[in-house]
Amino acid sequence: MVDQSKGGASRKRRPDLDTVYSINTDGSRNVIHPADVRGRWQVLKSLVFPLLIMIYALMPWIRMGNHPLIHVDLQGRAAYLFGLTFTNQDFYLMFFVLTGIGFGLFVVTAVWGRIFCGYICPQTVFMEGVFRKLERFIEGPRIARIRRNLGPMTANKVMRKILKHVLTLAGSSLIAHIFLSYFLPVRELLHAVWEDPGNHMSAFGWTTFWTLILYFDYSWFREQTCIVICPYGRLQSTLIDEDTIIIGYDEQRGEPRHKGTSEGGDCVDCFRCVEVCPTGIDIRNGLQLECVGCANCIDACDEIMTKIGKPMGLVRYDSQRSFRGEARKRLLRPRFFIYAFMGLLGLTVAVLSIGSRESFHANALRARGMPYVIEGERIRNLVTLHIQNKNDHPNTYLIKMSGQAISDLDVIIPQSALRLDGLSDGQAPVFLYLGREDFEGPFPIHITVTDSLSGRSIQLEVTFRGP
Ligand code: SF4
Ligand code: SF4
Q: Where does a domain end: 323, 357, 391?
């Protein structure tokens, strides 16, 4: 491995447990050039990555009801998820949904370690499935890339670098547009891009911003996102235990390492597992925070073992307990059940809350600092109803008193049927009058708001006040 921090000066440096290999001791960047690798886990990734990219890109195109499968309408303060409509009033539900998903991820991590990082995370999917491939295609395999980077600036080198960066920028822009299509309906987005960019400056600004962020990430920052920024990467060490399936090196079988002799363990110290690692670590040093679970080192070592006629699996998926030679404990252990219980609890509450959600929201407010007004011999209370239509189609809401506490109470509802557009809200005043001699103290009033389509009602209680 070569330290390239000093403009081409090279000196040997090995990955260790005390330093981050992708950062030099002087704080500069040690660019990692992972080698190509073939094997069964690469085959799996070559199937999973395109499939996931297709799902990310197509989701905003697929419609359920009148809206895309997933769409967040920031301007309209609404979100559409798999045929359901959520308004800002339903925002609390996100807490339960995120709790469910979060603990679901904890369960997966407790059982299979960083499988999400290696196969599903968009950072990995686009980095390894698109941009790393692009780089290899333009700049060649690892050794060619390293030599060219350390070599003089030639026309060939400049052309390759320009081509790589132009394509990386174009790819970043495409991903930024895919990202934006979750917030702007696809037709509007296409119209904004092709026909009327001048009238969509905020969309243009956001896309440019994300294009630059993604370009910075995929062209330079790369594995540092996983090592330095990603909170899940930092959290995972607290989620796993000795029975979690991780990627590890079988020390008992591999040690003592040796080169070219028939004595010692199975590890021939070829460094192939280190060369293919996208974060530059040596898996033989044990489980490390920088390991993103990509399985490159498994395939690399299996290839070597096959060549030297030894069984595959010196580097493999297994539990730390098994690597120590102890009997494997059950996969279903207390932390699995605790995380699963918390996840299911969150999702159950979310599902029940979504199921029992009203299709509209109503509340009653009175003018602040003016609980009542004296008009001659009468007391007047003014209550303003706020009604929000959570459907994406127009609807009418019927307002009426429900049960009258005092027979002499005069109720005037100027708008007893309030028509609201889809996902909009409106107000309706309710005037309440009572003779001064009839007022014996504050008493409750009930007003019912009914959805004319579904027939569902919300009953509101306000207090009639007087002197
Ligand atoms: S140690 Fe192996 S699994 Fe972990 S990041 Fe490196 S190559 Fe991938
Ligand atoms: S690839 Fe396998 S044999 Fe080669 S150094 Fe890594 S663990 Fe040892």
A: 357
281: Cβ below 6 Å to ligand 2? Answer: no
pTM for the model stands at 0.81
Cis peptide before 256 (omega within 30 of 0): yes
The structure tokens listed for 458 are 């919300």
The two tokens of residue 388 are: 């929000």
- Residue closest to 249 by CA, chosen among 272, 223, 216, 228: 272
Q: Is 255 in the pocket of ligand 2 (CB under 6 A)?
A: no
* Least-confidence region, from 48-62, 302-316, 391-405: 391-405
Pair (438, 367) in one structural domain: yes
pLDDT digits (tens, 9 = 90+) for 266-301: 999 999 999 999 999 999 999 898 999 999 999 999
C-alpha to C-alpha distance for 226 and 123, rounded to whole angstroms: 8
> 250, 273, 275, 308: which to mutate for ligand 2, most atoms within 8 A of CB?
273
131 and 150 part of one domain:
yes
Domain boundary among 295, 328, 357: 357
Going from the Cα of 225 to the center of ligand 1, the distance in angstroms, rounded, reads 15
Q: Please, what's the b/e burial string for 366-394 (b: 16 or more CB within 10 A of its CB; e: otherwise)?
A: beeeebbeeeeeebbbebebebbbbbbee
* 377 token code pair: 């011999």
| Rounded Cα gap, residues 278 and 131, in angstroms | 13
Residue span of the structural domain in which 453 resides: 360-464
